[in-house]
Design goal:
The longest helix is centred in the last third of the chain and has 33 residues. The chain is an alpha/beta fold. The chain is globular and about 80 Å long. Helices cover 47% and strands 10% of the residues. It starts with 8 loop residues before the first strand and ends with a helix.
């Protein structure tokens, strides 16, 4: 089987550095802001330069509201399984069901022994891990009668009371490379989580085959085991190797891994905020789209050696429509980037804010000149906004298709949920590759975001930035209103008028906001050299 049919997940693998704890947490919070699904941390309790992983996971879970968290992977020899089971269940309950459990048999045995752990051989490590999985799952089974009693070779639990049960069915993912660990993954685990850098060509296919066979022998389906993959790479203008090139190259390679090797979760090892923004904003949506299209066609390729596999067609770059020269010609001299005007047309009788109360930026110096490089930032902002305007037109078209009976409301909702403006739950999308991220007032990495830099370099922009942030929250709520109207329409086809009203309100708010942001920011971005 080359595609196990799981939904695609995109996550981050953040270094739990103790040198700058605020930055470590900030990078994790950013993962949620840009729309990633998962944040993970390595677990090496013997490493004094690292924060304790389970303490860090708890702190990050408290600072976020949507993203899932996991150790990648938990160091079992230093985490007694009965205690670990309760730690996981507790955090899952506290976070609203956002915890996954990555487990490893152990490595770096000298350091483990130095911390009081027991040195195990590879075979012993696998047997100990299987015992641990049994203990963890039994302790989570709070409805079963009696205490947990396991007198194992490595762990003894003599009547421990069950519970608490996690908030959801916590998946157990194993970091596995060797045959015995892969067989255990097929028999007992919910996911396989290796790192691509540790694999040789063909290892994914070999590992999948071992897992599939072990699963079937245990009376399970190979599809019961999600295939996850830690990846690392570099975004660059030209291709220099695997996962080293432009976003379009990443899209092609990850799509091939999804359809050809069954990988459905890609976890990027990077602490660079720009990498996370590009991964979430450019790579993830395009991979989802291409994989969904292949699945719809039922044409996912059968697994074959990579050397014999036909390369996937080069995907279209994930970008907004080209900048229209009449509005954003980037030439030296006078400022030439023209903000999109607000035509004043309003579709809805409802108003979500008072437009007359919007602050304005300082009046530009009419004698100042600007280089093409300085003007490029504002031009790109207009370009990305054009992409959001195009998506808004698609929403209107989808609603008309629903009204005409060409598609159902559920399909329309699915389309809207995959659009850029819905990829990031707190924002309208990743506006720019590296410089223009919409921030929320309580989730901000101050030294990496656009608005704090604007405030710092020109305090006179503070009122404008504050207003823009407030409007981002309002638009988020309006988008949720469209989603709720679609849900209601599924159950009551008489609700078409309410659905159109919700989309009209979104149109008024979004177009007005985008014009206001361009009007106030394109010149300061150039003047302040933010790019």
């Amino acid at each position: 089987m080359s595609d196990y049919g799981h939904d695609l997940v995109f996550g981050s693998f953040v270094t739990p550095s103790g040198g700058n704890p605020d930055r470590t947490v900030g990078v994790a919070v950013l993962a949620e802001q840009v729309g990633l699904d998962l944040v993970t941390f390595q677990d090496h309790p013997y490493q004094p330069a690292f924060l304790d992983t389970w303490t860090l996971l708890s702190f990050v879970a408290a600072r976020t509201s949507r993203v899932r968290v996991a150790a990648n992977v938990t160091n079992l020899p230093l985490r007694p399984p009965a205690v670990l089971a309760r730690s996981v269940a507790s955090l899952d309950l506290l976070s609203g069901g956002r915890v996954s459990l990555g487990l490893g048999a152990g490595a770096f045995w000298d350091a483990i022994e130095a911390m009081g752990g027991r040195r195990l051989t590879p075979g012993q490590g696998v047997r100990a891990l299987e015992e641990a999985i049994e203990i963890i799952r039994q302790l989570w089974d709070a409805e079963a009668r009696g205490g947990v009693r396991i007198d194992g070779e490595f762990y003894r639990v003599m009547g421990a009371k069950r519970g608490p049960a996690p908030a959801h069915a916590v998946p157990i993912w194993l970091g596995a490379y060797k045959p015995r660990m892969l067989q255990l993954t097929g028999r007992r685990a919910d996911g396989w989580l290796p790192s691509l850098s540790y694999l040789q060509p063909g290892d994914l296919a070999k590992g999948n085959a071992i897992i599939d066979e072990a699963a079937q022998q245990a009376g399970r389906s190979p599809q019961d085991v999600r295939r996850l993959l830690n990846i690392a790479g570099q975004f660059s203008a030209v291709g220099r190797g695997a996962l080293n090139g432009p976003a379009a190259q990443w899209v092609q390679e990850l799509t091939e891994l999804a359809l050809g090797e069954g990988v459905s979760a890609f976890i990027l090892a990077s602490d660079d905020p720009d990498d996370l923004r590009r991964f979430a904003g450019e790579v993830a949506p395009a991979v989802r789209e291409l994989v969904a299209a292949e699945r719809d066609r039922g044409a996912a390729p059968e697994r074959e050696p990579a050397s014999e596999r036909t390369p996937a067609p080069e995907p279209e770059p994930v970008a907004a429509p080209p900048v229209r020269p009449s509005r954003a010609t980037v030439t030296g001299g006078a400022f030439a980037v023209v903000p999109t005007p607000d035509d004043g047309v309003r579709r809805s009788d409802q108003q979500v804010w008072d437009e007359s109360a919007r602050p304005t930026a300082p009046v530009p110096d009419p004698n100042r000149t600007y280089t093409p490089h300085e003007q490029a930032t504002g031009a790109h902002l207009v370009q990305i906004h054009d992409g959001l305007r195009a998506e808004l037109a698609q929403i209107h078209d989808l609603i008309e298709q629903v009204a005409a009976g060409e598609i159902d409301a559920g399909a329309a909702r699915s389309h809207i949920n995959t659009m850029t403006m819905r990829q990031n739950r707190w924002t309208l999308g990743v506006y720019c590759e590296s410089y223009c991220r919409i921030v929320t007032t309580h989730h901000t990495i101050e030294d990496q975001s656009l608005f704090p830099r604007l405030r710092a370099r020109d305090p006179r922009l503070g009122p404008v930035v504050d207003r823009l942030e407030q409007e981002h929250h309002v638009i988020h709520d309006v988008l949720e209103g469209v989603d709720q109207a679609l849900v209601a329409y599924v159950g009551s086809p008489d609700g078409l008028a309410e659905l159109r009203a919700a989309v009209d309100l979104l149109t008024d708010a979004l177009l007005s906001h985008l014009s206001y942001e361009e009007r106030e920011l394109v010149e300061p971005l150039a003047r302040l050299g933010i790019g």
